[in-house]
Design a protein that fits this description.
Blueprint: H1 2-36, E1 53-57, E2 62-65, E3 70-72, E4 75-78, E5 83-88, E6 91-92, E7 101-103, E8 109-111, E9 125-133, E10 137-140, E11 144-149, E12 154-156, E13 161-164, E14 169-171, E15 174-175, E16 183-187, E17 190-191, E18 198-200, E19 206-208, E20 217-223, E21 230-231, E22 235-240, E23 247-253, E24 258-261, E25 266-268, E26 271-275, E27 279-284, E28 287-288, E29 297-299, E30 305-307, E31 316-323, E32 328-345, E33 350-353, E34 358-360, E35 363-367, E36 371-376, E37 379-380, E38 387-390, E39 394-397, E40 406-413, E41 418-428, E42 463-470, E43 475-480, E44 492-499, E45 506-509, E46 517-520, E47 528-537, E48 540-544, E49 548-551, E50 566-571, E51 574-578, E52 591-598, E53 605-609, E54 613-616, E55 624-633, E56 636-637, E57 644-647, E58 658-664, E59 670-675, H2 679-682, E60 688-695, E61 698-708, E62 713-716, E63 724-733, E64 736-740, E65 744-747, E66 762-769, E67 774-781, E68 790-797, E69 803-808, E70 813-816, E71 824-832, E72 841-846, E73 878-884, E74 890-895, E75 910-917, E76 926-930, E77 934-937, E78 945-954, ...
Parallel strand pairs: 2-11, 13-22, 24-32, 33-41
Antiparallel strand pairs: 1-4, 3-8, 5-6, 5-9, 7-8, 9-10, 9-11, 12-15, 14-19, 16-17, 16-20, 18-19, 20-21, 20-22, 23-26, 25-30, 27-28, 27-31, 29-30, 31-32, 32-35, 34-39, 36-37, 36-40, 38-39, 40-41, 42-43, 43-46, 44-45, 44-47, 47-48, 47-49, 50-51, 51-54, 52-53, 52-55, 55-56, 55-57, 58-59, 59-62, ...
Helix pairs in contact: 1-3
């Protein structure tokens, strides 16, 4: 049969070649003509260039006085020269008939004899210079303010005063701000000369520092603003001699808040008077300013501070401090620094075609933040549907038309000033290519066509433009390639669209060459749009398709979002949420649903509300919640509001601090340690801790100490020596003090230890040699009143100075490792402290030989000191237990045999708990102290094995570490996604891909499965992605029947017994192109090779011949050459057919003879079995094989065709689907089951371009993995598989994917004939089918296998549908019940026994050997079938 199929395939291939040769012969003359002709030149080879057009000089703010003349400068550059006009307050000035205002030759505005009065101010205002070039455009300058100083008015005048010699004096003179520059002072009616001692403040005030007798006299200020001067009142200043008595310090002038612009100078006034004469210093933000060495900071006469060239860093609070030795006074003022608008990014010139979308970018900075407006050719741009302000400052123009050409200017303005920057837009003809420019100002829809076009034929119009998907706000268009280029691999397409009745057209481009679909977004509901499609090749744009009229769907009349939703905390456990009626209710609002969720959790709760507010009670204290509201009308739920978050009020802590411990430092101090209360009991931000302590003998005398909230320890000093104290700690929030810990006692030392000298010699040293190590133990010095910081151990062969090791003062033994056997080592031990090392104690020991395994101790000989045992050695704690409380918390408990039976601690001992994990191996121990017989260890890693041990310390003595206790923390959901996700195509199967990945780095438990999400739209909602569940910890998976030449995006998330982890980043993979013809289905010839045949691979460089009728140019070919070529082609074709037929007949006869031999061999083995008819007539017997983990079961074919694997559309809504068992795990409602809706018959599905649509599968989310998986395998009706036939089958499939005995190539491709069956797992290949074993009891265990693709199955006859727990989350307004998964059930044991008896056969030893060899190959093929 395989040979027959090969012959038929070869015959069909030869027919195809002959067809191609004949076609080539017919088209050859036209093709030759096309090659010999010259292509037409693209019109419009030239294009316009940008014209330089800008301002050389722009007007600036100007201050003038009445009756004077003013020039506002303006000059613009352009070729040709521009026409200059002026605007005042937004209105053009008529300068032709104006006597006082005239236009100068360079474009400046001259105003003579400025007019200004109380009721007539014709010249004051805002001016703009406007430059225009005909046929080019208009630009507008920045706005300049002309201010005319008014009539002089004194708001304060100098008053008579006196000053002591050497002190400072001030004389006030304040006028309206615009006249300050015109103020001067006179003394005794003579102009006053200003110097470093006599200065005028910016406001006009006169300051005289270090007054002398000559400063006395009459003073007045004068305002000279162009007219007659105006004088203030005269005031006499008297200078008095120094009385040599003290007087109080007073400020004569204090600084006031100021606002200045970057680059200006500022003076902060500060003048003080008093005896002795005060000195002035300045501080900024608590730092003293150095006015002597700074170049920008100057201390003026009297003490005022001048800052030159102000920067943003100068902003802040300034303090003026006056000090005369007797007293100090200070004043402060805030300096605010502003900045004029500046452009960080200016608009750039843009070339574009009509219908394109463009963006002019404009990025500005300034303080205050500038506002931005846009001007086109001198007119304000008003935002609309086609002119939009995006990203706050940028201008987007949609659907360009010719009238959009011109100059666009970005104006930035704040309180300080304004600035402008512009760019030119040129719209080219469609046949003129856009020059190559940085495409930063083009949107994603218009960033192609930037390469200059070359000459050549243009494509014809795309064919069969249809709207394959129409929604309320988007339309998906599909089309076929133009007739001029049926392959279209290098074509790009532009979709032009506009509202019906609107002339402005927009364009949307395909994302890659060869793509023939576009989704147009951001449309309006119930609106008619006109679409047309145009193809482009390297030569330019081709013909446009006929207009297509499409109307978007109307929106369902559901309520809009409830406006003005707000929430506020009422108490530590309640929050009130309020909202208003939706503006678009679309009918009567029936009720509202309030959704709320605690931050950090994924469990959202809801409550029905009939009013516009609701108070939620019973919430957690000081916990943030998010709220949203959905309105309901008769149509269902409306649009949800945005989430609002609010935190419940704080409260006093509800629990005491944890793990309180005391450490006696010396005779007068103790260190107290603690940890914060549990997070759930803090009820707010911990602002501090209150420590209370008392003497045990005087319980009424309590001392309190407060520490900050970040401090977790405190040294308590000033205690009495040899005295017992009680301590307790309580946590504080802004609401008050929480409960305190129990009283904890400790006793200070009677005397402090001495560290003025080195420690004495240790009292004993004991060594115990082993083969490669020596155990050293010792006791501390007899005199324990000297501080010991640690011990230094020296050792070496023959000398103790080769190696030195230092250990802690608490340690009493040490093991010296990595020694040589049978070697003599000298060991020395010295105690040390901060002063130095004490007297050493020497010992020697000989390590044991390799053959010595005895444990006899080597006693010390010639010890210089008699060993003195520790008088009261501490016993280590016993019964250490680790109780797992959560994924990061373990409670350690133990017992202390040195305590009384009731285990009550009455002395100052404390315990040290240490813990570590062995992964990684070099992890260090962590320690903590406790004063009780338990300790709560927090901050551990999930699903990690830890070891714990405890030791006790009392005074200066410590025990050794206890026996270790072990505990593994609970699992937690994975906190990191799977990593190293890769996607590769399966060799030989372009529609099948293999996804590989690595486990999450933070799995936090045993991985029980993975979920693969894939979609063609990376921006789609996750519930719209197709899911592929992977059971177990496998790291690879196959996905079959994908659409060819389509980009897919893949994400993976892992799950363990606690739930799902985060998703990986999306990985893109494009499936390979098809190896078949590029023709559309309706273009395929009727004489194709039949199902399963493939056209030969023509290579990537193959180009189809062009028809002569389509060639616009060419030279004729002689009829003789054409006829000769046709005769040669036909002859070759006939010879090829004859050879193919001879080969086919020969292969068929040989196959028939070979099969007869096989059947005879099978009959000799199986005896009575006979064949009738061909293999298709053989009905397979029922087969049930128990073979370790291998399970097969026959499934009767359903009487109706497979409803899943056909083109039957899935219903759009939930009412069209029959409900099934909706039981589901309550805490797994995390994913929404979704399905595909209808698609046009003329378009291919973007998600599943296969004949059988691929719906999603509801995946079991139990903590245990499912014991069976559903797999799509060939139907039993098409499997000629009997026990006698399989024994004689050759397993020669070259690809190793299928066995010819079980699956023909045509059957493999016909997925419509498939039925679900139990998933087959590979087993040992040498165990015979003839000797099956009864399956062991209990659930089967699965070895990791190659990936498969589970699909939703149809319901088979006589099989019970198991209820499967599914993960599904209900969404508002959309109910999606889970779809059933059918898993075949196993037969009863009696039925199995009958099958086993029926299948028994007797074999001779040689026959059995051959049978086992055949079965080994059969097992491999079965494995390939199940995993393919």
């Amino acid at each position: 049969m395989a040979a027959e199929r090969g012959a038929r395939r070869l015959l069909s291939t030869s027919s195809f070649w002959l067809y191609c040769l004949l076609l080539l012969g017919r088209r050859a003359p036209g093709a030759a003509a096309a090659r010999s002709g010259s292509a037409p030149q693209a019109p419009g080879a030239s294009f316009r260039t940008f014209t330089p057009f800008y301002f050389l000089v722009e007007p600036v703010d100007t201050l003038s006085v009445r009756g004077s003349s003013v020039i506002l400068n303006c000059s613009a550059y352009s070729e040709p020269s521009p026409k200059i006009e002026w605007k005042k307050d937004g209105t053009f000035l008529n300068l032709v008939s104006d006597d006082r205002r005239q236009l100068l030759p360079d474009g400046s505005l001259f105003i003579s004899n400025v007019v200004h009065s109380k009721h007539n101010k014709p010249d004051e205002g805002y001016y703009q210079c406007v430059a225009t070039v005909e046929s080019l455009g208009t630009i507008v300058s920045r706005t300049a303010k002309l201010t005319v100083a008014g009539l002089p008015r004194f708001t304060s005048q100098p008053e008579p005063s006196s000053v002591y010699a050497g002190n400072s004096a001030i004389l006030n003179c304040e006028v309206n701000a615009d006249l300050v520059p015109f103020v001067r002072w006179e003394q005794n009616r003579q102009p006053l000369l200003l110097d470093d001692r006599v200065i005028k403040l910016p406001g006009g005030t006169l300051v005289i520092g270090n007054a002398t007798e000559g400063d006395g006299g009459l003073y007045r200020c004068v305002v000279e603003s162009g007219g007659p001067p105006k004088y203030s009142d005269e005031a006499e200043l008297k200078v008095l001699p120094d009385p040599e008595v003290t007087s109080n310090l007073v400020f004569l002038k204090q600084p006031s808040p100021l606002v200045r612009v970057i680059g200006q100078d500022v003076v902060l006034p500060c003048v003080a008077s008093g005896l002795p004469t005060p000195a002035i210093k300045w501080m900024k933000n608590e730092e003293v300013l150095d006015t002597e060495s700074s170049e920008r900071l100057v201390l003026l006469s009297g003490g005022s501070l001048e800052i030159s060239d102000v920067t943003e860093d100068d902003a802040g609070t300034y303090f003026c401090i006056a000090d005369n030795g007797n007293e100090t006074i200070e004043a402060q003022a805030e300096l605010t620094v502003q900045a004029q608008p500046e452009f960080l990014k200016q608009p750039t010139n843009i070339y574009a075609h009509e219908s394109m979308d463009i963006i002019f970018e404009c990025e500005v900075t300034g303080k205050p933040t500038p506002t931005v407006k846009w001007v086109k050719n001198g007119d304000m741009v008003i935002p609309s549907d086609y002119f939009k302000i995006v990203k706050e400052h940028n201008l987007q123009v949609l659907g360009l038309v010719k009238s959009d050409e011109g100059f666009y200017q970005c104006f930035a303005e704040n309180d300080v000033g304004n600035a402008q920057a512009g760019a030119q837009l040129i719209i080219l003809e469609h046949d003129v290519a856009i020059p190559t420019l940085p495409p930063t100002s083009l949107t994603s829809a218009t960033t192609d066509h930037l390469a200059p076009a070359t000459t050549g034929p243009l494509p014809s119009a795309p064919r069969d433009v249809v709207a394959s998907l129409v929604s309320t706000r988007f339309i998906k268009l599909t089309w076929r390639t133009p007739a001029s280029d049926p392959h279209g691999d290098n074509l790009t397409y532009s979709v032009f669209y506009t509202k019906e009745g609107i002339a402005r057209e927009r364009v949307e481009n395909t994302s890659r060459p060869g793509e023939m679909q576009v989704t147009v977004q951001n449309l309006m509901p119930a609106t008619v749009y006109i679409f047309r499609v145009m193809a482009q090749n390297k030569h330019g744009s081709g013909e446009s398709s006929a207009p297509l009229r499409v109307e978007t769907q109307p929106e369902v009349q559901l309520p809009g979002p409830a406006p003005n939703i707000r929430a506020y905390a009422v108490s530590p456990t309640s929050i009130t949420v309020m909202w208003e009626t939706p503006l678009s209710g679309n009918g009567e609002i029936q009720n509202y649903k309030l959704y709320y969720m605690e931050k950090g959790t994924d469990k959202e709760q809801d409550v029905d509300v009939s009013s516009h507010s609701y108070t939620l009670n019973g919430l957690k204290k000081y916990t943030e919640y998010s709220f949203r509201v959905v309105a309901y009308n008769k149509h269902g739920p409306g649009v949800s509001t945005q989430d609002v978050a609010v935190r419940t009020l704080s409260d006093v802590p509800s629990a005491a601090p944890q793990n309180l411990s005391l450490e006696v430092r010396n005779s007068k101090s103790m260190m107290i340690h603690w940890q914060p209360p549990a997070p759930a009991t803090q009820n707010g931000q911990i602002t501090g801790y209150k420590i209370r302590y008392r003497k045990a003998s005087r319980k009424s005398d309590v001392t309190e100490t407060l520490v900050s909230g970040t401090q977790l320890s405190q040294l308590i000093e000033g205690l009495d020596r040899g005295t017992e104290y009680n301590f307790r700690v309580a946590a504080l929030t802004i609401n008050g003090t929480g409960p305190a810990t129990d009283w904890l006692s400790a006793e200070t030392f009677e005397s402090d230890l001495d560290e003025t000298r080195v420690p004495e010699v240790p009292s004993s040293l004991h060594v115990r040699p082993l083969v490669t190590s020596i155990v050293v133990s010792w006791t501390p010095p007899e005199n324990q009143n000297i501080v010991v910081r640690g011990y230094a151990i020296g050792y070496g062969i023959g000398s103790p100075h080769a190696q030195t090791i230092k250990v802690d003062y608490k340690q009493r033994y040490y093991t010296i490792e990595n020694l040589d056997p049978s070697s003599h080592y000298v060991i020395t031990l010295k105690a040390f402290n901060n002063v130095g090392e004490g007297i050493p104690l020497y010992e020697s020991a000989v390590t044991r030989p390799h053959t010595d395994t005895s444990e006899v101790d080597l006693f010390v000989i010639n010890a210089p000191y008699t060993p003195v045992p520790d008088p009261t050695p501490m016993m280590p704690p016993v019964g250490v237990q680790a109780s797992i409380l959560s994924h990061d918390t373990v409670r350690i408990t133990w017992a202390d045999n040195s305590l009384p039976k009731h285990q009550k601690i009455t002395d100052s001992r404390y315990y040290t708990v240490r813990w570590k994990t062995n992964i990684p191996a070099n992890t260090k121990y962590k320690n903590a102290n406790a004063t009780t017989l338990s300790y709560l260890v927090t901050g551990l890693k999930p699903n990690t094995l830890y070891e714990f041990s405890v030791m006790v310390t009392k005074g200066r003595r410590s025990s050794t570490w206890s026996m270790t206790a072990h505990g593994t923390t609970f699992e937690l959901v994975p906190t990191s996604p799977p990593k190293d996700v890769t996607v590769v195509s399966k060799e030989g199967k372009p529609k099948t891909i293999i996804v590989n990945w690595q486990p999450p780095s933070e799995a936090n438990g045993k991985i029980t499965g993975y979920i693969i999400y894939y979609s063609t739209d990376v921006n789609a909602e996750i519930h719209d992605w197709v899911i592929e569940p992977v059971v177990g910890n496998r790291l690879t998976h196959q996905i079959q029947e994908l659409t060819l030449d389509t980009p897919y995006y893949f994400k993976i998330q892992a799950r363990n017994s606690k739930g799902m982890g985060p998703m990986s980043e999306a990985v893109q993979f494009r499936t390979p192109k098809a190896d078949s013809s590029d023709k559309m289905p309706n273009d395929q010839a009727s004489g194709s090779g039949g199902k399963g045949s493939r056209l030969p691979d023509l290579g990537s460089d193959y180009k189809p011949p062009m028809s002569g009728s389509n060639s616009p140019h060419g030279s004729p070919t002689s009829p003789l050459d054409s006829n000769m070529l046709l005769v040669i082609i036909v002859s070759v074709g006939v010879i090829t057919i004859v050879v193919v037929v001879i080969i086919a007949v020969f292969c068929t006869r040989r196959t028939t003879s070979h099969q007869k031999k096989k059947r005879a061999a099978c009959k000799s083995v199986n005896g009575s079995h006979k064949y009738k008819g061909n293999s298709k007539d053989v009905k397979p017997p029922d087969l049930w094989i128990h073979h370790e983990r291998l399970e097969l079961k026959p499934i009767d074919k359903s009487p109706d065709p497979n409803p899943i694997m056909t083109d039957t559309p899935i219903p759009r809504n939930s009412q069209d689907i029959t409900p099934v068992d909706n039981s589901m795990d309550s805490n797994i409602h995390q994913r929404r089951n979704s399905y595909r809706g209808h698609e046009s018959e003329d378009s291919m599905s973007t998600l599943a371009g296969r004949r059988g649509m691929r719906p999603k599968m509801m995946m079991p989310f139990d903590s245990q993995p499912p014991q069976q998986s559903v797999r799509n395998t060939p139907s039993t009706d098409t499997m000629p598989a009997s026990s006698s036939q399989t024994c004689c089958t050759d397993h020669q499939d070259p690809e190793g994917a299928t066995s010819s005995s079980y699956l023909a190539s045509s059957q493999e491709e016909d997925s419509g004939q498939s039925l679900p069956t139990a998933h087959v797992r590979p087993s040992h290949p040498l165990k015979s089918f003839a000797v099956p074993a009864i399956p062991p009891p209990g659930p089967p265990t699965y070895d990791p296998a190659l990936p498969s693709t589970p699909l939703l199955s149809q319901q088979a006859l006589n099989h019970h549908i198991h209820s499967v727990k599914t993960a599904s989350i209900g969404t508002l307004g959309r109910s999606r019940p889970p779809m059933p998964v059918v898993v075949p059930s196993a037969p009863e044991v009696q039925e199995t026994t009958r099958m086993l008896e029926a299948s028994e056969s007797s074999y001779e030893p040689d026959e059995l050997t051959k049978e086992m060899a055949h079965l080994e190959g059969l097992m491999k093929d079965l494995n390939a079938i199940t995993t393919a």
